[in-house]
Amino acid sequence: MKGWQSGCLSRARRLWVFRGEMAGGWAACRRALSSCNHYRQPPQIVQTPFLKRCKDQLKYHIFVSLVQARNTMLLTERHYSMSQTTVDPKEMKKFQLLAHKWWDEHGDYAALHSMNDIRVPFIRDTVLNMRNDHQPGSPLSGVKILDVGCGGGLLTEPLGRLGASVTGIDPLEDSIRTAELHKSFDPVLAKRIQYKSCTLEDIVEEASDTFDVIVASEVVEHVADVEMFIRCCSKVLKPEGSLFITTINKSQLSYIFGIVVAERVLGIVPTGTHDWEKFIPPEELERLLESNGFLVKTVKGMLYNPLFGSWSWTESTSINYALHAVKSDIQEQVDPNLETDKSSSRPKLWHQNLQLRRYSKR
Question: Which residues of 176-197 are buried (b: 16+ CB within 10 A; e: fewer)?
Fold first, then answer.
């Protein structure tokens, strides 16, 4: 009997303390509301333990709601994820007709040949800045690179000559044959470069977290599904690995100079090579990258001079631009089991270390 009475008294005391905290909290709120007016700031509300717990729970529920809302918005906005492959059959037909012209430095791919003057040093210097050691003469020795959409190997070979172990992939078998033939003229490249006629999705199945660097130069404006392309890149790239992209902005200037002037007036590239609707603004590309676990480090404008047939860096990204992003190994999530920390009543939260865009200017 005494134990039962003691238990009742203990529960009554706890209820009375809880009632007192609630009464104190509401009394503090009433005093604050009654004393404020339109001409001065309301006084500070007394932070009782009851109000503090309410405030903590409210913050958590708002956070979870915002995360859920953000994920829903991303799912509805990702209009790029429409297909199950990154290959566009229409683009395949375009490049099939040009598969034997890759190494004509004065032909349809002349602008890509001259682009090596700035894109190769950009990749080389960026990778070296992230590494502590390198060998003289072979600065990229030990670096595994995947060249996606390599075509005839215009970028693959220079990277191989810098000492990197490069895998070049392209869905067109004729382009890979051209690349293999040209590689055979240099015995050194035979040990450093391998070509595969396959898609990026095929590589994902056999090479997860394999490559230190992925290069996609003048490729994303030709793929069928940009976001799937980025997801596949993330899967085959090692944590903290680098992704290099060069592509064309979707702007009025890019239509004028990239379509009208380059294709129809000057004939720098064959008519119909590009589709303006498939161009992607750097802001949109950054959003897709960051939502798939990348940190965008650099975005730089590129400018082509048709008179001299040369490329240079520029502050404007309104036409062509280059981008460098790093795969993050820290993901943002809310623990599904809502595990709580012993030192706090709040659930544990894991935050991704999101980095603000940093534009490198030269």
Answer: bebbbebbeeeeebeebbebbb
Cβ atoms of residues 234 and 292 within 8 Å: yes
pLDDT tens profile 269-315? 999 999 999 999 999 999 999 999 999 999 999 999 999 999 999 99
**Token output for 362:** 């030269």
**How is residue 187 written in tokens?**
């015995």
User: Per residue in 15-70, pLDDT tens?
Assistant: 444 445 445 554 544 554 454 444 444 444 455 555 555 555 554 444 444 444 44
Cα 249 from chain centroid (whole Å): 16
Dihedral of the alpha carbons of 173, 229, 280, 154, in degrees to the nearest 10:
-40
Tokens of 214: 């992925």
Evaluate whether 214 touches 233 at the Cβ level (below 8 Å): yes
Give start and end residues of each alpha helix (H) in the chain: 2-35, 49-77, 89-96, 110-130, 156-161, 173-183, 187-192, 200-206, 226-236, 252-253, 282-290
**Cβ 179 vs Cβ 150: under 8 Å:** yes
Amino acid code (one letter) for 38: H
The two tokens of residue 86 are: 């990154």
The C-alpha atoms of residue 136 and residue 138 are separated, in whole angstroms, by 5
CA neighbor of 193 nearest in space, from 241, 242, 150: 150
Global pTM reads: 0.70
Query: What residue has token string 């238990």?
Result: 7
Interaxial angle between packed helices 2-35 and 49-77, expressed in degrees from 0 to 180 and rounded to the nearest 10: 70
